[in-house]
Amino acid sequence: MLVVLICIELSDVIFAVDSIPAVLGITQDPFIVYTSNAFALLALRSLYLLLSRSLQQLHYLRHAVALILGFVGMKMILDFVHIEISSSLSLAVILSLLAGGTIASIIRNNSRKANGSGSQDDHLLDEKLSHSA
Predict the structure, then answer these.
(1) pTM for this structure?
(2) Residue span of the structural domain in which 8 resides
């Protein structure tokens, strides 16, 4: 049991360290980088269950998260060449992408419910897309 606990905590630390470049894309303040990763360690396991259920119901959320990661990467590249994007603009872009993905997923789910449960081809396509992503 101790080995399992050590493995779980080690994976938490690895994921927290993995997110440091994303935080550095937003701020260079070491206090914010440290505290955001500390809170990420505290919330990682509890948020996993929420996110896994959300991804099942919100089909386009995965695409929105991919666009957010692309935005953070672009922001880091622009910061490297001394072009700064404000934090308020970054927050607006991230919230817009999350809201857009959520709203598009809700519209998709509502239209599928209105048309029935969808065709067999839709289910096969959704299954292929979820396995490839």
Answers:
(1) 0.57
(2) 1-54
